[in-house]
Amino acid sequence: MNFDRIVCFDLEMCCWNDGRTSRTGEIIEIGVAELDLNTGRIVRRAQHYVKPEHDEISPFCTELTGIKPDLIEKNGKPLATILRSIEQKFGGKHKIYAAWGHDDRILKKECDAKELKVLFREYLNLATLFKLQRHVTNKRLGQRAAMEIAGVSWEGRQHSGYVDAYNLARLAATMFCDKE
């Protein structure tokens, strides 16, 4: 296990605002940013578009994430292919993975449904850790609000997996890296 780096990731999923009982569906984007805990620098980033097998991208989803159906059609790959790529480039089970909230559960649920292996063994919920470190008592605290508390400005468009993972790695640096 490599304890010198944390691989931050963010998922974007198919979503709707039309009264469906399930408001989120299959994963359509995985953003990844690797933080070197010794230097506090983000050393690697990646953006992967995932082609859903059963869901479609709604106009609401496009408005929220900026992800259009034709972008997924052109650049999307099956989840299994994306997971193999992340494992090869970021170290898979040999690294600690982290996200804001329960993206691990979402990924595991979809992997189970598609009979795929989750690519990590170690997972950190940075939302819980941040609230513990900063003594935040709000039941729900979004990543952007946490960044404001930490004095880190948001960069880029929110609800882009690529951007959200990058910003999460920047926030993680304030939590785990020495301030010199």
Overall mean pLDDT: 94
Strand content: 25-35%
**Quaternary structure state of the chains depicted:** single chain
Reported CATH architecture: 2-Layer Sandwich
What does it look like?
With 180 residues, the protein is α/β, with parallel strands linked by helices. It has one domain (2-174): 2-Layer Sandwich (Nucleotidyltransferase, domain 5), CATH 3.30.420. The protein contains 7 helices and 5 strands. The chain has helices at 59-65, 69-75, 79-90, 103-113, 126-134, 143-150, 161-176, and strands at residues 2-15, 24-36, 41-49, 95-99, 122-125. The protein has a 5-stranded mixed β-sheet, sandwiched between helices. A hairpin with a 4-residue loop joins strand 2 and strand 3. The longest helix is centred in the C-terminal third of the chain and has 16 residues, at 161-176. The protein is globular and about 45 Å long. The model has no long low-confidence stretch (mean pLDDT 94).
Key attributes of the depicted protein:
five-stranded mixed beta sheet, 180 residues, 5 strands, globular, Nucleotidyltransferase, domain 5, alpha/beta
Short description:
The chain is of the alpha/beta class and 180 residues long. The chain is 39% helix and 25% strand. A five-stranded mixed β-sheet has the order 3-2-1-4-5, with helices on both faces.
Secondary structure topology:
Elements: E1 2-15, E2 24-36, E3 41-49, H1 59-65, H2 69-75, H3 79-90, E4 95-99, H4 103-113, E5 122-125, H5 126-134, H6 143-150, H7 161-176
Parallel strand pairs: 1-4, 4-5
Antiparallel strand pairs: 1-2, 2-3
Helix pairs in contact: 6-7
